[in-house]
């Protein structure tokens, strides 16, 4: 009442102030009513139009290391020049205004307008249907981006281009993410940062890229990656977008993909009703994958591959280096080999043609994915069967340079003369081993093969290994003839093996008769190791089997293998290494086509060293179309590998000697 009493007084200033305050309050109430009531639907729809989009962030893949910590596979930063389309809306609108379809029309003007000089011709916009509008809008946006990219290409001195299909696909499916333009090397990055100003929306993103620093080295063991756009079942309903990711295809990358790839992270992107990015936030960080540590030795692996490639650029072969006491594989080499880097960077047409060359077949791991006739190196198994059958190693057999089995003449590359076990072994006499193999019987030979688990996979890389072939006992009891036995005594006929199986056989001779499981993975550990209990170790497995032969038999075979390298006339003389007593056996198997025509040879040399206390088994296999013998081709390759091993042992001994 006091306020109204004051208003009744004749005070104009107070009345003006009161009216102004009341008018302002009325305006505020009207605005509030407009927002709360009239515009309620508009703002609620706008709020619903703004939504979060979840983006899957791939984790940094774990490394693959050799036994000494040498890096076989790692991650390198990949810089990608990308374009955020949400920041180009001004360009889109300007291009739309410039290119909007128009037509010219002539109007009928009144006389007075014509007298005043009005122009009867005018330009008006064409009315578009919905389909026409959408198509023209897409073309307009593409032209704006294409013009920007063209200018950027000139400023960076780097050819850049975006196809219409790529642009439309990205705009309709991944508008909230940057449109990738190119991967940047150091030159492009330097030019990019040298610019005083960059177009709006242009940014440099960093992604981890798989890198194999040694190229084709151990490629078949490591495997490679392929682009992965799949999601697990629990991810399909959660992620709207996913950044580029990869999965292992074969080798360690494929077999241990679950350990290497880690756990993906998540970020949210707030988009408006048109799908443009407004803001983004990391919800959960990606957890890096685990490191896989192999038993391979990078230096020995390279030495094995270099030895195989000494045959030339089109060399085809395999090499296995194994510890005879543990089964640890120090080298598992196959040539020719592909470069795993090309699968993450993009395979060219020419490189794909090379990968599919029928003769070379670079994608085949010849150590375990191909079957071969073992040739004369299988005489090691024949020797075990013969000696266990009671054949006197001192008994001599004369042959005139050939032997008849039935009506079939089998030539012998060993010179005519008398042969006991020792001489027959180092000269690899077919006549000696066929004669005594027939005496021992095919059943004893097959049982030795079964003890070696020939015809069975070693389990090293499941799904990436062939078992070879060994006839079963039922097969040899029905329809088997002496000629079949003679073929097997020479390492041919109904018999096929892998180089890895022959390395296991050689290790069994060296270690006293234990048939080992080959071992490739030593442990799996985090990239940042804090406590030892974080390491998952793969211990050496107990022997798979034992040969079941006497120590005397093993001693005779080992002595014969030593003589094959050290004695005059031995076929493995070229593998001799001063300071390391190498024991070996050479072999050559013929390759024939369907018409029984000779088309090439498979050359072998299998060995172990040193003779007194064996530690290593080294096997070499070479495919050739030009003839040759295992002793001439493969034995020198094994020598190079042993020399590398010997040098490594000397270096390690020197380091230990200097250690206080």
Tell me what you see in this structure:
- By secondary structure, the protein is α+β, with helices and mostly antiparallel strands.
- Helix content is 38%, strand content 22%.
- It has two domains: 52-95 and 124-280 and 290-294, Penicillin-binding protein 2a (Domain 2); 298-350 and 366-658, Beta-lactamase.
- The longest helix has 29 residues, at 630-658.
- The strands form eight sheets. Strands 2, 3, 6, 7, 13, 21 and 22 form a seven-stranded mixed sheet that branches. Strands 15-14-26-25-24 form a five-stranded antiparallel sheet, sandwiched between helices. A four-stranded mixed sheet has the order 9-1-11-12.
List the helices and strands and how they pair.
Blueprint (H helix, E strand, L loop, with lengths): L1 H7 L3 H27 L1 H10 L1 E7 L6 E2 L5 E13 L5 H11 L2 E5 L4 H6 L4 E5 L4 H27 L7 H10 L5 E6 L1 H9 L7 E10 L7 H4 L2 E3 L5 H4 L4 E2 L3 E3 L2 H5 L1 H4 L4 E7 L5 E8 L6 E4 L3 H12 L6 E8 L5 E7 L5 H5 L3 H7 L23 H10 L8 E3 L2 E4 L2 E4 L5 E3 L1 H6 L3 H11 L1 H10 L21 H4 L5 H8 L9 H12 L3 E2 L5 E5 L10 E2 L7 E2 L4 H16 L16 E10 L5 E12 L6 E9 L5 H29 L2
Parallel strand pairs: 1-9, 2-13
Antiparallel strand pairs: 1-11, 2-3, 3-6, 3-7, 4-5, 8-10, 11-12, 13-21, 14-15, 14-26, 16-19, 17-18, 20-23, 21-22, 24-25, 25-26
């Amino acid at each position: 009442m006091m306020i109204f009493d004051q208003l009744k007084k004749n005070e104009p200033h107070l009345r003006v102030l009161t009216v102004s305050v009341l008018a302002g309050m009325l305006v505020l109430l009207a605005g509030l009513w407009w927002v709360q009531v009239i515009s309620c639907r508009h703002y609620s729809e706008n709020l619903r139009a703004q939504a979060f989009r979840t983006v899957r962030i791939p984790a940094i893949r774990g490394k693959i290391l050799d036994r000494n910590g040498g890096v076989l596979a790692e991650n390198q930063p990949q810089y990608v020049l990308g374009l955020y389309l949400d920041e180009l809306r001004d360009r889109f609108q300007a291009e739309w205004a410039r290119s909007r379809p128009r037509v010219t029309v002539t109007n009928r003007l009144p006389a007075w307008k014509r007298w005043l000089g009005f122009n009867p011709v005018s330009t008006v916009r064409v009315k578009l249907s919905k389909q026409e509008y959408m198509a023209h809008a897409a073309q307009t946006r593409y032209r704006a981006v294409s013009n920007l990219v063209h200018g950027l290409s000139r400023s960076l001195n780097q050819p850049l281009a975006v196809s219409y299909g790529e642009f439309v696909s990205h705009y309709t499916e991944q508008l909230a993410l940057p449109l990738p333009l190119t991967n940047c090397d150091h030159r492009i990055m330097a030019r990019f940062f040298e610019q005083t100003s960059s177009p709006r929306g242009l940014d440099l993103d960093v992604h981890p890229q798989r890198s194999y620093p040694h190229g084709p080295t151990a490629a078949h063991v490591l495997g490679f990656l392929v682009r992965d756009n799949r999601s697990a079942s629990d991810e399909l309903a959660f992620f709207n977008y996913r950044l580029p990711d990869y999965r292992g295809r074969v080798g360690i990358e494929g077999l241990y993909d679950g350990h290497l790839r880690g756990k993906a992270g998540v970020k949210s992107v707030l988009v408006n009703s048109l799908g443009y990015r407004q803001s983004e936030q990391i919800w959960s960080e990606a957890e890096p994958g685990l490191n896989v540590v192999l038993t391979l030795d990078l230096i020995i692996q390279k030495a094995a591959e270099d030895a195989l490639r000494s045959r030339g650029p089109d060399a085809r072969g395999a090499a296995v280096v194994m510890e005879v006491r543990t089964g640890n594989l120090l080298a598992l080499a196959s040539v020719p080999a592909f470069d795993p880097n090309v699968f993450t960077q993009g395979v060219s047409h020419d490189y794909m043609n090379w990968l599919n060359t029928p003769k070379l077949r670079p994608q085949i791991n010849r150590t375990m994915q191909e079957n071969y006739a073992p040739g004369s190196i299988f005489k090691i198994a024949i020797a075990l069967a013969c000696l266990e059958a009671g054949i006197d190693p001192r008994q001599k057999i004369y042959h005139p340079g050939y032997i008849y089995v039935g009506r079939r003449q089998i030539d012998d590359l060993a010179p005519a003369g008398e042969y006991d076990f020792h001489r027959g072994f180092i000269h690899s006499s077919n006549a000696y081993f066929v004669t005594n193999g027939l005496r021992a019987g095919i059943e004893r030979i097959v049982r030795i093969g079964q003890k070696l688990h020939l015809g069975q996979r070693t389990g090293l890389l499941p799904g990436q290994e062939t078992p070879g072939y060994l006839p079963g006992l039922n097969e040899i009891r029905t329809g088997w003839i002496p000629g079949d036995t003679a073929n097997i005594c020479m390492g041919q006929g109904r018999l096929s093996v892998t180089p890895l199986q022959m390395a296991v056989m050689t290790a069994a001779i060296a270690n006293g008769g234990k048939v080992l499981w080959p071992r490739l993975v030593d442990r799996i550990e985090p990239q940042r190791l804090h406590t030892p209990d974080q390491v998952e170790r793969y211990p050496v497995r107990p022997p798979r089997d034992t040969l079941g032969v006497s120590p005397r038999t093993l001693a005779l075979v080992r002595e014969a293998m030593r003589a094959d390298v050290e004695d005059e006339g031995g076929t493995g003389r070229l593998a001799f290494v001063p300071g390391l007593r190498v024991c070996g056996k050479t072999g050559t198997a013929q390759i024939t086509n369907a018409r029984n025509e000779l088309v090439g040879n498979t050359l072998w040399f299998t060995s172990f060293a040193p003779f007194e206390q064996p530690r290593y088994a080294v096997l070499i296999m070479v495919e050739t179309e030009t003839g040759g013998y295992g002793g001439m081709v493969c034995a020198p390759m094994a020598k190079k590998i042993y020399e590398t091993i010997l040098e490594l042992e000397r270096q390690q001994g020197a380091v230990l000697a200097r250690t206080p």
